[in-house]
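In response to reviewer comment 3 from the previous cycle, which asked for concrete evidence that the modeling workflow produces usable outputs, we include below a single protein chain processed end to end. The sequence was submitted unchanged, and the resulting structure tokens are shown without manual editing.
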Amino acid sequence: MIVLRSMISALALDARQNTHLQQLTIKSFKKGGSKMPKATFYRLELTKKRQLFRALKKEFEYKSFADASINEIIKTAGIARGSFYQYFEDELDCYLYFVEKLQKKRNQLFVKLLIQERGDLFAGARLFFEQSLVDVLTGPNAQYYQIMIEAHDYRLYQQQQREKCAQQRALAKALYAVTTMKNLKLAGYEEFNALLELICSIFFRTMRHYFRAQQANKTITLAQLKQQCFLQLDWLENGVSSNMYFLEKRSD
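The workflow returned the following structure tokens.
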């Protein structure tokens, strides 16, 4: 319970930061929420979809959401401004589409690894973290992940998922379906989903720690990041209080 309260407090502190991104997200949902993207986009030829996705990748790979420009996107994609708004509601809409394309692959990987580990949630999470660390730091989208985490842009996607719940709910249910629940002290799906959010928060905090250290010219190795993630997962899985502590408290 001590480690759970600490993690919840950390999440609450994170939620109070970066007000600008929160206001942008709330503004979007007041207007009806993101469609990600419009039906017109899905009727495009595959080559045009890929061309537009490459334009989004080029813009968001080197700029935060706040610094990105629709003008640059349409210039790179070679489309008219009017065409852009036939495909997307606004800049947030296209950003969320880009992120969801990347996130979908990661979600599929998590489910695959959990099945491989015979439903052991923490064993699956360890493998997922291990592979994700390598991908985020050295994969083809490494530059984007760095900017996304440093600028806290991932909160835009998390907030969108909390409001619409589509992909996040699908991931949680997919993981829940293949998790061996008898090994967990959980009352059902809602508690499982809360645990899953805590598990994922470990990864984000670890990556933020890494990129902040990089900015301060401090060296952190991949092995150290892995150890940090695994240590926090172990706290969550096994607790931080020793059996001797509980025995002493009972004797009192």
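DSSP finds 14 helices and no strands in the chain. We consider this sufficient to address the reviewer's concern, and the full set will be provided in the supplementary archive.
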